[in-house]
Amino acid sequence: MDARYEPLFQPWKIGNVEIKNRIVMLPMEGTNMIQWEAKTGFVRNIGAFYKDRKNNNIGLFIPGLIPLVSIVGEKWIYEHPEVFEAVRPIVKEIHESGAKIFFQLSAGSGRSMILPQLLKPFVRKGLVKNLSSRLIMSKWWWSAPDDDEPNVWDPDVRMDLFTSEMISRFVYAFGQTAKLCKDAGVDGVEIHAVHEGYLLDQFAMPYTNHRSDCYGGSLENRLRFACEIVKEIKKVCGEDYPVSLRYSVCSMTRGFNEGAVPGEEFTEVGRSMEESEKAIRILEEAGYDMFDCDNGTYDAWYWAHPPVYAPLNLNLPYVEHIRKFTSKPVVCAGRMQPQEAAASIGAGKIDAMGIGRQLLCDPEYVTKIIEDRMDEIRPCIACHGACLPFNGMNGKGTDIDPMHPDMGRCVLNPWTNNEKKYSLKPAKHPKKIAIIGGGIGGMETAIQASLRGHEVDLYEKSDRLGGAFIAASAMSFKEKDKQLLKWYEKTLEQTDTRIHLNTEISDPKSLDADVIVIAVGAKARTLPIKGAERAVTAIDFLNSSQETKDNVIVIGGGLTGCEIAYELALKGKKPLIVEATENIIGARGICMANSSMLKELLRYHKVPVYVSSTVESIEEDTVTLNTPEGTKVLPADTVILSVGYSPDRSFTENKDPKKKVRNKNRIYHVGDCDQVGSLKTVIRQAYETVQKISY
Ligand SMILES: Cc1cc2nc3c(=O)[nH]c(=O)nc-3n(C[C@H](O)[C@H](O)[C@H](O)COP(=O)(O)O)c2cc1C
Asked: Is 35 helix (H, G, I), strand (E, B) or coil?
């Protein structure tokens, strides 16, 4: 192992519990040992997930949060001790591997509660304040420190008051549930959360707590609920049973649904660093043994769920600072990188590195660090496309349900949390497979097919593998996407795939193969506007040197258009976005953490956005827009068209996609050439196609 990583592999202690190394697998919903919410209580089929990870050198596992009370039907987990029986064998296996495990127990979400889409029609009708929702969801999930507080996802939805009687009941429930954890062999518990704007955090922060009872007002009062919880657990489970707290050092919040971006000067409405320095002392004194830290609230969600636009290790300076105000160990989370984490741990500035999504993406992440196989790590690209795909719908709720099956999965590794569906067995009758197109779809198909024992030829017409993803990864903040391309090349190299670059195939049937997979991607769309020939498509722009003069107009405010505008702003240009619909970045499946950060960055960099606007014509140095305020003529040195893609049907015999001839299943289509989708759909299709071919 590279000596720089050594500090990551020293033992440490939380209370009396020794952890073998400094790597903590962070809690992620979808990796819950007990998934309790919808039913009377059941253990998710999670064994395979932990099997893949337990022998891969993780020191401490913290599975995703376990709500103490069910969302539906008001059932308390401590009244159902039978659900803990099923976790015992997994806990035992984790212990046998030398790792430790804490369960994260949650007080709930308060105003951050995701409003399921299926309830929206009832709520919108406004019959009685959220009556229909309340009939389905228990009051525990519809209550917040202040009466009438706006829900994060839809400010028209208002919360009920979390009464002091409810607090007492919760405190009692925490003690009883922690006892069940202890009895099941779980090494400690983590309280969720004075963190990210969840219920306990709303109690703790001034902008979400205006109570006049002993749970509001002074900092001590605002932290009283969190302090009572740890005291109760220690009373029931004994002083030496470790209790961690999920903790946001600073809230990074400017107001309801308004977050600050890195480097911005702003007025904090949540927990400032000054207050945090005092808060952590109060919490330590109450009994907490560890702080599992980052920053943010749901109003500034991207600090806790950092997307691709967030710097690597973004929370580290804040966590290092707060460590000076407590004698207890601190963990730092948020796009942590092993080199920086090791340096900080080595210098005694933090105690452990928290890793979340990277472990969904590559279960062998830590093992590969130890074995000096860094270039074999499949890098998490912070897309949230399958682990947390909740679109914010621009303040109109979310586009999917909280029980969405994709939570805790991974775009790049469909196997994660879907181990049964994507089982990897050798092919019964290995075949000769020719793949046309060396983009992500083609490369993933080649890897999966080779791993199952097929003989694979991969044909790419250009001199490089990567396809449209080369352009998608071109922006300066996409270092992990660039690493992903390298990972694909490296992984392909390790298979027996024969790669044919600079090889254009005109007639697939001329190839000597049992099966042909077409993965030729999509073509950029253009618009029938006057002067469109003066514009450059997003993909051509990204594949070019990207040199422009100052005034750049980006037509299309989807994800790519907005990313290009942000990149241009970073380069000191003056981009402007024109979007035909009411909102930018509206597509399904884009996590609110990603879209809200990009929107805040565009705000911070003062990028003008014209929504509900269209381009009438593109002239020599100007563009004429139709906006709700009338016609505008704006200066334009470069015009970039980012209005989506259509499937490349070069190899579809019948141009009508519905009548596609598949030649008795010898020809398969993978990815955008079939139907334009996302990285998630392309990669899943590659897996599924290889499964079809193999069994
Ligand atoms: C799918 C998903 C679910 C999460 N669920 C929880 C949770 O249950 N409790 C919690 O404290 N944090 C939760 N988080 C936040 C993570 O613990 C972690 O702090 C975050 O992903 C940033 O770390 P990373 O950049 O290493 O992924 C979740 C994150 C993801 C991606």
From this structure: strand
